[in-house]
Each structure stands twice: as structure tokens, then as C-alpha cells.
Amino acid sequence: MRCFAILLLAASGLVACDVSDIPRAPHRVTMAVSRDITSLDPAATFITANQLAMNLAYEKLVVAEVADGKPTGRMLGQLAERWETSADGLTWTFFLRQGHRFDDGSEVTAEAVKFSFERTIKLKAPPSQFLFFLRSVEAVAPHEVRFTLRTSVPFFLQVLAVPTASIVNPSVLSQANGADLGSRWLSTHTAGSGLYRVERFEKGQQVTLKLNPYAHRKPDYFNEINFMTVKDDATRIIQLAKGAIDIVDPVASSVDGWLAVQPGVKIVVGLSPTVAFLHMNNERPLFRDVRVRRAISLAIDRELIGKALYKGRTSLLHGVLPAGVPGHDGTLALPRYDPQAARALLREAGVAPGTQIKFTVVGDGNSASPLALAIKGQLEAVGLNVEIERISTAARTKIMKGDFDITTQSINLDFPDPSIVFNFVYNSAMIGGANFPRYRNANVDRLIGQADSTLDSATRANLYRQAQHIVVDEVPSVVLFQLDWQRAVRSDIVGVNYNFSQPTFYNFEGMSRAGDR
Fold first, then answer.
1. Ramachandran category for residue 118: left, alpha or beta (phi over 0 → left; psi -120 to 50 → alpha)
2. What angle do CA 302, 308, 313 make, to 5 degrees?
3. How do residues 115-144 score in pLDDT, each as one tens digit?
4. Do residues 195 and 288 share a domain?
5. Which of 84, 136, 189, 283 is deepest in the core (most CB within 10 A)?
6. Where are the beta strands (DSSP E) in 363-434?
7. Cα-atom radius of gyration of the chain, to the nearest Å?
8. What is the pTM of this model?
9. 60 to each of 67, 183, 228, 390, how far by Cα in Å?
10. 62 and 99: one domain?
């Protein structure tokens, strides 16, 4: 890629690297990403930039069905033709489709499934955390594989749809370097049965995928996918406008205004899997009083923050769960902003004007974030005195130990399941870990336990709705908003099926270029 640094757009002051010399090909789609793709091994990495190529080169037992930008809750078989589970939910048996082949022509078998999961556990890299509940995997027959769990996990199928559950060709052991189980080789190669395979890996520059000649079917249109690392926001969007790039993800708010008026480009905005919270330490005397917690919630103008800091790209939640997540309850009122009511509640609770609160902000920058400053200003407007304490990311154990008054946290729903939010925020068993607000409620614990021990989806969703009503009433944390996700594509790219719970999982196999079928 040649860098000219000569393209100056007077209206925006943007300077860019010119990648317009990349040969055009209608059946090639090029996407710019903002981070280096560092590894393609599903057992070694969680980084979303890495998962872009991973999801095209590997298949999983199941995938989540998506409609109108939201998961439907249905799981569809990909490698699995069907599956059965025992009454206690501890044993799951999957029957594989025949005819799925790795990119070397070998068949995907139950032994390959067993190998893939055991390999992830043996590597002990971060993705292995997804499989904490797995006791064993057994190849019962060539196309029949049985999972035995340590405990019943009602969201087991959802876990099987994440990149960690990709099925890897056991032949990678021939590329092993010591005890790495082929991980070094897989960082720049792929060994899957997906519709594509990695053709070229240029570290820090680009990754190119072409068709897997042995795939069970062919994609609708694109036979080559090119991921380019372009870290500069301006460079990405200028080259998109010029037609050298087809997709940019993400689009920074600093450049979206310029891009929105460019011909041949469309900006796509949808919900992200990220929910932002303002946590209050429920063990501190001040926050033991529910009136104080309710006052804090009423003091926060979420809509103003969303407009001022995120250009309106935030969505308020009915309760604590986004739409599309089991247990979501659209009948719950949206949070309201009422500083007068907040002041009245603080007076009623006996909180003196000027009462000091320490706002612990995690980050490695040189100053507090605009979000922290906005919250500080709004809390001070109702009579509190807020002191911002900045700590490094490495020092966040301070929060887990309960050494704070208030703090912010963003939670990513890696798959659309309520247990992620409830176990990270409201389960008392997680105090000292993920339960930052140090919230305790025996009824909520009971409902979470009941929900996560039943396999009936309707019963489980109802139990989480009940738990949600309790936490909405008690306000152990302030739910700020769900963030939106913004990307941009050339107008001739059609068929993108957006999934808010996995916004970077592109369905390239079903996309095409309009007018060139």
C-alpha cells in the first residue's frame, strides 16, 4: 500500500494514505479495520478484529439466527444436523452433517470436534474461560459427539456459537511448535471448514481470504475477502469515499459528518452489544439507602449525555436488558431525568448539601473521560460534591475489593443472554469479582439460580423478568444506556445481515454487489 499523504480535503482537514492503486475486482470485497489482526487461532484470542476472518474460515456446531438486526433466540445447526439433551441438561449429543470438509479435503468428524474443544482447554488461553463448565467431550461415533457438563448451562448452545467453539482440523498438530498445539502456525493460517480460507497474512497490513475448494457450498457472490489494517480514521473513510474500500468498521464520530454527505456511501447505525452502567457501592453507608440510589439515577440526564458525547448514538433501556435478550421487558418505564425529584430524595434521606462522593475512573489516559466529567457535573447540580479519582487499568482490582464510592463500567453481551448482565452485576456470589456494586438480594440470587438451572426458555425468561423488576426498583446500579454501533459501506454492497450482539460478525457469504450478479 502506497502512502502519499497529499490528499487534503479543505472542508474537513483530512489527510490520507492512498490505497486507490489496489486492483478492482467486483467479486472481491475489501474491509478496513482499525486494529491489527494479530492471530487467527480461535483458541488463543478474543479480539474482535481477529474474529472477522476467523468466522469465515471456521464452522461451528450451531449459529444464532438473526432477523432485522436482532437475534431471534433460535439456534440453527451449522455442522450439527440435530442435537439432543438429557433431562438434567448435563449431557448434550450432536449429530453431525455429512459432507462438510476442511480446506485440505478431510472430513469434519466427531473426533475433530472433540479435538477442537480439548485443544482450547489445554492451551489455557483466555477463550478457555468460555468452557469452564465442560467436563468431557466424547466421539461416540464418526458423526456423533457427546458433551458432558459439570453443571447445567441453559445457554450452552449460545456458547457453541462463539468463535471459541470453532472446529479446527486436527492436522494442525503437524505444525506444532513444542507444546503450542499448532497455535503459532494458526496465528497466521487457518484450518477450518468454512466457506473461505486464509490465502495471505501480512502482519499489520492485510489478511486475504479466498474460497475453500472443499466447502459444502459456495458463497452467493464474493469469492475473495480482504481485511486491511488502516488505523487512521480519516484514511479509512477517505478511501471508502473513493471506492478503494467497501466497508469501514467502526466509523468514528469525528469523521461521520463528512462521510454522510459523500456520494456512493451509506452509514449504517445499529445497536451494539455494549451496555454502560454507573455503579454505586451498595456497602457504603451513603448508598445503603435506596432513596440515595434513586436520587443518583434521577440526577443523570442520559439523553443529554447521549446527544452531547455520542451524537445521539445511544438507546435508553426498559430495565437492564436490551431488546432481543431473553427476559427483556418492554413494559418497564424508561429511566427519567428529574433533578428536582433527586434533590427532594436526597433531603428526605438526610444527605447534606456538599456531601462528598469519590468517583473512581479506570483508564490509562491523562485525564478523566468526557462521560465521567458529564456525570460529575450532573451529580453536583443536585448538591453532591464529586471528586474524580483516576486509576490505571492495571489497578482496577481496587474496585473489585470495594474501595470506591461510584464507578462506571461497560458490559459486552458476547451472546444475547441475560445471565451475562445478571451474573456480572447482581449476583451476590460475584462480590469481590464481577459484581462491582457489591449488591446483595436473596430473592434475586434465588431467581438467577432457578433461571440458570432450567432448560425451558420461556420459564427462564420469566424468572429473569422477575429478577429485573426487583433490581429496577432497588437501583443498585444506574443503567446509563446501550451504545450504538456505526459502520459505513459502499452503496452497492447489499445483503448485510446486522446482528447487534455480534456486530463484527459479517455474513460475507450472503452479501453481493448490486447490479453485478
1. alpha
2. 70
3. 999 999 999 998 898 898 999 999 999 999
4. no
5. 189
6. 385-391, 406-412
7. 24
8. 0.82
9. 20, 19, 25, 42
10. yes
